[in-house]
Amino acid sequence: MKTSILIVEDDKAIQNLLAATLDANAYQCYTADDGEKAIFYATVKRPDIIILDLGLPDVDGVEIIKKVRSWSGCPIIVVSARSEDKDKITALDAGADDYLTKPFSMEELLARLRVAQRKIAALGRNASAESPVFTNGGLTIDYGAGTVSVDGQQIHLTPMEYKLICLLAKNMGRVLTHSYILKELWGQAFESDVPSLRVFMATLRKKIEKNTADPKYIQTHVGVGYKMLQVE
């Protein structure tokens, strides 16, 4: 069964290019050129993935993200000419899973789509298995026991490091902004304490990564946040 994708893009040339490329790569596509149609198709067609431009003629794309997130957890990949960190953070905090800045290569978009598909598959497996154990490559988190192992070796984490890795694991494949992570871990009052978050992330990486200069599990998005990568 083909993966269905809703393309929300008001530039017809870009919309047609995206649709043609995705069709050639065996995806089923629906297209919308404004926010009203986007919400309609998202509700009626229930696409597996949404590709969303933020600069729509009738509404800001961030509002689309918020509305879709009120009832759906499908991956949302933003493609936008807005390249400022604040724009990326706003979209990701609203619930977007990924952010591509225009212009971008179709090969990169296809790679991001494959990541989104793996996330969908992983969520499906976790939901059906009802297992308290998370696995990603050599990383294992036993939520019931509160333990973390890498390649079969249990590692000691502080309570805050454990909360951090669990938050990343439960949002695998999604970029989590600094403010989102801080709010989830420490609450509203600590949203600006990015230096402390960087310290915790550095110590966590030393414990789970074989090479911190080339991390396998946790990817940094400079100026934005962090993402747990899915390891084959």
TrEMBL record:
Biological classification of the source: Bacteria, Bacillati, Bacillota, Clostridia, Peptostreptococcales
Ranges where the OmpR/PhoB-type domain occurs: 131-230
Gene Ontology molecular-function annotations: cis-regulatory region sequence-specific DNA binding; identical protein binding; phosphorelay response regulator activity
Name the UniProt record assigns to this protein: Stage 0 sporulation protein A homolog
GO biological process, one term: positive regulation of DNA-templated transcription
Keyword Lipoprotein: no
Gene Ontology CC annotation, any one: cytosol
DNA-binding region: 131-230
Modification 4-aspartylphosphate occurs at: D53
Species the sequence originates in: Hominibacterium faecale
Cited SUPFAM superfamilies: CheY-like
